[in-house]
Amino acid sequence: MVNHLSKSAMLKRAQSPNLFSEARAIPYSMIERPVFLVGSERSGTTLLRLMLDHHPEIMFWAEFEYGVYQMGDDGRYPALADYYQRLLADRNFLMDGPNIDRRLSYPELVNSFLRQFQDFTDKPIVGATVHHHFDRLLQIWPDARFIHIVRDGRDVARSCMKMGWAGDGWHGAQRWLTAETLWESLKTKLPADRQIEVRFEDLITDTVGTLTQVCHFLGESYHPDMMSYAKNTDYALPDTRLISQWHNNLSKREIQLIESRISPLLVERGYPLSGLPHLRVSDLGQLWLKVENKLGTLAYRARKYGLPLMSADFLARRLRLTGLSDRIRKKINVIDIKTMKQSW
């Protein structure tokens, strides 16, 4: 059994997350060279991860943010009691279902999650996707390898807006900007043999060629099973219509807002600009966009979760009622899983 499940299977997993029935009697050894797929959300990480996971020698798990999100930027590990509590309210952790072995230190515990996934599939190469704070992974696995995937930031911003994560193009570009800036910093710390960059557009237009390069990076050969993911997941085979959707699905103003924020990085990544007049956003304009973004995301959340649940979530977090907040978060998680676009 591997982690490319249908929406219904993932929902069932979230409601009964005890996927791994027993913890080992002996702590797991540290994985020496795990592989992490990094980049912005909506950049094609799920598609590439599914392809890799269908390789007979590669196990690639889904979103693994919970491995690093409680670490400090200074490298300090979280208090374990607090970490356990946050894990039990984390949607991805609950869906993944690994055991929490309370005998282990923080790095040993996080490593044990990957070991459990690896043992479940019995594949020699183990990897996971991380979108945020992926630079912190080196603290736990100093010899980790990284696959960085990049997609046109305008398509990422458009998708983030569609998901309700942003109310305008200026804020829709934030996740892409944050991930790309972080990668710029991280890659300088990695030798050439521990990093590879993949363009989403190449993955779509030259799938086998791109996968062959990634497999060689991992010390493997391309395997045709990598294209079998479409048979047992909700993801279809690569479609060129996924490329440059921003041309037809964003207004001129939204394109200008996005490019005004990320045009230098777009050009550096090889994405030509639209040619629209440069839009200068003043401090006052940014303030208004912040209000517009907040109103847009609140309206989306109210439609998705209902006003009572959304309000209860806000009050519980504002008043720091941790127990109540965690219970509400679990209800929100179930809704997220049911309504998630292009899941896993």
Query: Helix tally?
Result: 16
What is the string of SSEs from the N terminus onward? Answer: HEHEHHHEHEHHHEHHHHHHH
What is the chains' assembly state?
single chain
Provide mean pLDDT, rounded. Answer: 87
Instruction: Tell me, briefly, the overall form.
Output: globular
Alpha-carbon distance between the termini?
15 Å
Task: List how many beta strands DSSP finds.
Answer: 5
Give the C-alpha Rg. 20 Å
Question: What structural category do the secondary elements indicate?
Answer: alpha/beta
Low-confidence stretches: 1-19
List keywords for this structure.
344 residues, 50% helix, alpha/beta, 5 strands, 5-stranded parallel β-sheet, 16 helices
Description:
It is a single chain. A five-stranded parallel sheet has the order 2-3-1-4-5, with helices on both faces. The chain has helices at residues 7-15, 45-53, 80-87, 91-96, 106-121, 137-140, 153-162, 169-172, 174-187, 200-205, 207-217, 246-249, 252-268, 283-305, 307-318, 322-339; strands spanning 35-38, 58-63, 125-130, 145-150, 195-199. The longest helix has 23 residues, at 283-305. It is built from 16 helices and five strands. With 344 residues, it is an alpha/beta fold. 50% of the residues lie in helices and 8% in strands. α15 (307-318) packs antiparallel against α16.
Task: Give the topology, please.
Blueprint: H1 7-15, E1 35-38, H2 45-53, E2 58-63, H3 80-87, H4 91-96, H5 106-121, E3 125-130, H6 137-140, E4 145-150, H7 153-162, H8 169-172, H9 174-187, E5 195-199, H10 200-205, H11 207-217, H12 246-249, H13 252-268, H14 283-305, H15 307-318, H16 322-339
Parallel strand pairs: 1-3, 1-4, 2-3, 4-5
